[in-house]
Write a structure and sequence with these properties.
Largest interface: A-B, 24 and 33 residues
Oligomer: homotrimer
Strand content of chain A: 35-45%
Number of helices of chain A: 2
Distance between the termini of chain A: 13 Å
Bound molecules: adenosine-5'-triphosphate, magnesium ion
Helix content of chain A: 10-25%
Largest sheet of chain A: 4 strands, antiparallel
Chain lengths: 115, 115, 115
């Protein structure tokens, strides 16, 4: 079976719409988005949220989960960086995980065919 | 150690209660549920939400996370399909991931004993 | 590349702040927190939420996701147990997963350098 991979991108909520469009452009066939809280341990540096510095290290973030097989992981990472990088702290982080299988419920298809 | 597996089921919010009952019936010992947004890339086809067609591809979905060891993955998948399949687009998707360990905090038990 | 691991801790919402501080103390460099619903299959035993027994097995829980490389998994687990264990049902569960890679968007660093 072809290798399947989960790419998790956690970034600023303001970037949600741009990131969705960017993923669409590179042929991603689905994604799951959720609202989370992110604790970045800045060790003294202060991240800004809507122009206000946050003392406590707990900020609203958006999490994208994207499972790919045919679309290369590197393409997703490169595209996400292009959209999300500002150079300021809090630009976000990408985590890559192994996936064992995918099933599309409507058709019963599995693996790459289910994506 | 026995192989442990995470099964992630993403489907329509209306199915939340039925899916919970179905998992209970097959002896699942715990589950975690969250509200997410799903972007299905329908490439022109329109998914309905509460009778309204959605132009933008971002719909409320419910995500179930179930970690199993003794209950077979196939049984969970078969049962989920039985409850969730309508034949319409948007029935949902199942993702399978490897799990390295589980710990029950109250007892300190690990692995299959923690499930 | 050094082994990277995801530690997922699901516990009572009241413990959110204590757990965050505890993780900070052991040098965790980031974490992601979300609100979820937990179905513990107590098979007859009743878990309490804000002093009220819950008939239906669906309770508000908080989920911490922590990706580590240099900080040992065992240290995170031991610290989490110390903060979360009350001896009552519902203390929480810890799930351990493999991670393939991590990328810090601001710097482009990968792997252990991105953590
Ligand atoms: N080790 C980690 N484990 C789990 N989640 C993390 C971890 N590191 C970062 N995150 C998540 O990613 C979000 C964005 O992280 P962020 O961009 O602040 O990373 P960073 O390493 O602090 O980089 P920067 O120095 O550019 O701010 C965090 O708010 C948190 O939700
Ligand atoms: N590749 C993917 N990566 C991440 N999440 C996905 C992916 N594909 C689907 N999902 C999630 O699963 C949800 C349900 O998907 P859906 O049932 O629409 O799958 P589909 O492949 O579009 O099948 P169908 O043609 O039957 O609609 C989506 O809303 C999204 O949250
Ligand atoms: N097998 C599982 N799969 C997915 N999530 C689980 C599983 N078991 C537990 N959880 C999640 O962890 C939360 C806390 O679990 P809980 O502490 O009640 O575990 P437990 O095994 O029932 O132990 P206890 O007997 O001490 O209550 C649950 O509410 C649920 O969100
Ligand atoms: Mg940061
Ligand atoms: Mg769809
Ligand atoms: Mg319980």
């Amino acid at each position: 079976m072809d290798k399947m991979t989960k790419i998790e991108i956690i970034t600023r909520p303001e970037k949600m719409s741009d990131l969705k469009e960017a993923m669409n452009e590179i042929g991603i066939t689905g994604m799951t988005v959720s609202h989370v809280l992110g604790c970045g341990m800045q060790k003294g540096k202060t991240e800004m949220y809507r122009g206000v510095p946050y003392e406590i290290s707990l900020l609203p973030k958006v999490k994208f989960e994207i499972i790919v097989c045919e679309v290369p992981v590197d393409l997703v990472v490169t595209k996400a960086k292009a959209v999300l990088k500002t150079g300021n702290i809090g630009d976000g982080k990408i985590f890559i995980y192994p996936v064992e299988n995918v099933i599309k419920i409507r058709t019963g298809e599995e693996g790459v065919k289910a994506l």
